[in-house]
Write a structure and sequence with these properties.
single chain, 496 residues, alpha/beta, TIM Barrel, 8-stranded parallel beta barrel, 4-stranded mixed sheet, globular, binds ligand GBH
Length: 496
């Protein structure tokens, strides 16, 4: 016989167990895409060339399947279907980006494209009509080629160019768009673009251009944030930040946290410390190591540009939330004399080497290993380093095979969301929202159409680009509907 006391006890236990897998009541779920990856219509109406149009057309070998985004998912024509998919998933918000050369064909605000303006108006209004919040990224890598010809992200004037472009967008859409991302992943814009690995504009200058870009991209973000803060926030009261791509750097066995901190300063701190830290500016250890390395190499000044007090103040505190794109982890160890470093394998300046752990799960991308605990540690690290800032996960996801039965994606999302929940419920990290990347298969940059990140599969052979929900889409919809991970069991395949 079970006594009433025992029944109550069991019920309580079940409740505690259940809440562990349950999201806070006001937690928000979304999906993301970006303009060049989905829109197509690369030369429709008065749209001009972006650096990705130029790269894919003039240098097809830079893309593994020699493809391009000329048509992509054809979202320029199929935005209604895109909205329908967001409705099917039941997401609270849809994160998409605006194409700079579609809105401003000259790159400058002297001419605003009527068709470009209407396209995003339709998308925004269509989402709002269905109760879905538009979350808008101002810059997701498709720089007008004209601005690239003027030096792109190495020219400090880009701080004003981006500021003007952002102001045009606020004037057009800030009455309805309440959450903004200024710039997506500065580290890709600077560190990948100048590394000579085929990322637009494919200029090889890892030592200098890369760090000029780092400073300019952060100043441009700060400019866009300040324009919003001063001229638009009083009327519209939205929130705005940038999205950083942050890897979790874990010390290798036998290595110290200090060693991992060296990698963190270069990979994460370089793009976060100037914005989110109380004191602002570069992480001190990065400034010191960069100065030492530059001196050894014979430079007269540090390759990491110095910041004036005004610049430090200009960037410091320009956020309303921490925008986090997170996919994977890396192990860190100290560099040994016989290590030869190349792009992504470590940093000569910091004296660290980066490696994957054989214990982490493989995905179909070489660079993306599944280490869900890394997300929890990273969330705690961000809170401990910068304080109790609200965090929005603006991207998380993985690629699958070209199949509708994407068990690996279900598994990845379940485990990463589970760790996020532990950070929220156990560690009390203030995470407001989660964005699955991506709504649908799309042009995956240098991987072309080989990598499939979509909750929806897209048939790129069919001129109509039909979209079909994968297993993971059904899983995500059910998680959102129930506000809990307990439904996961139905979508897993435990035999795999
Ligand atoms: C995100 O960046 C992007 O914001 C998004 O547009 C993209 O679709 C998504 O990733 C999925 O890739 O093979 O060694 O050359 C994540 C950053 C992108 C960084 C891929 C590493 C390949 C490195 N990562 N990149 S490598």
């Amino acid at each position: 016989m079970t006594t009433p006391k025992e029944v109550v006890f069991c019920l309580l236990l079940a409740l505690v167990g259940a809440t562990k897998r349950t999201f806070p009541p006001d937690f928000k779920f979304g999906v993301g895409t970006s303009a060049y990856q989905i829109e197509g219509a690369w030369n429709v109406s008065d749209k001009t060339e972006s650096i990705w149009d130029r790269l894919t057309h003039s240098n097809p070998g830079a893309i593994v399947d020699r493809s391009h985004g000329d048509v992509a998912c054809d979202s320029y024509h199929q935005w209604q279907r895109d909205i329908d998919m967001a409705v099917e998933l039941g997401v609270h918000f849809y994160r998409f980006s605006i194409s700079w050369p579609r809105i401003l064909p000259t790159g400058f605000p002297n001419k605003i494209s009527k068709d470009g303006k209407n396209y995003y108006n339709n998308l925004i209004n269509g989402l709002l009509a269905k109760g879905i919040e538009p979350v808008v990224t101002i810059y997701h890598w498709d720089l007008p080629q004209r601005l690239q010809d003027l030096g792109g992200w190495t020219n400090p004037l880009i701080v004003d160019w981006l500021g003007d472009y952002a102001k045009v967008l606020y004037s057009l859409y800030a009455d309805r768009v309440k959450t903004w991302v200024t710039i997506n992943e500065p580290t890709l814009i600077c560190d990948m673009a100048y590394a000579g690995i085929g990322f637009a504009p494919m200029i090889v200058d890892f030592d200098i251009a890369r760090f000029l870009c780092t400073k300019n991209v952060l100043m441009a973000h700060a400019k866009a944030w300040r324009i919003y803060d001063e001229e638009f926030r009083p009327n519209y009261n939205g929130k705005i930040s940038l999205s950083n791509h942050v890897i979790w750097y874990e010390p290798m066995e036998g290595e110290t946290e200090e060693t991992a901190d060296l990698a963190r300063a270069m990979g994460e701190g370089r793009y976060s410390h100037p914005i989110y830290s109380k004191e602002g500016g570069w992480p001190p250890i990065l400034e010191q190591k960069m100065a030492e390395a530059s001196r050894k190499e014979g430079y007269w000044t540090s390759r990491l540009p110095a910041l004036t007090t005004e610049e430090i103040e200009f960037m410091r505190g320009t956020f309303d939330y921490y925008g986090l794109n997170h996919y994977t982890s890396l192990l860190v160890r100290r560099q040994r004399p016989d290590d030869v470093l190349h792009f992504m394998s470590g940093s000569e300046e910091m004296g660290v080497v980066l490696e994957y752990s054989p214990k982490w799960g493989n995905t179909s991308s070489e660079w993306l290993k599944s280490n869900p605990e890394g997300l929890r540690k990273l969330l705690v690290y961000i809170r401990d380093t910068y304080g109790d800032i609200p965090i929005i996960i603006t991207e998380n996801g993985c690629a699958s095979s070209h199949s509708l039965e994407d068990y690996n994606r279900v598994d990845y999302h379940e485990k990463y969301m589970e760790q996020m929940l532990l950070a929220i419920n156990e560690d009390k990290v203030n995470v407001l929202a989660y964005t699955a990347w991506s709504l649908m298969d799309n042009f995956e940059w240098n991987d072309g159409y080989n990598s499939r990140f979509g909750l929806y599969e897209v048939d790129f052979e069919d001129p109509l680009r039909p979209r079909t929900p994968r297993r993971s889409a059904q899983f995500y919809a059910d998680v959102i509907k129930s506000n809990s991970l307990d439904v996961a069991q139905k979508y897993r395949n435990d035999e795999l």
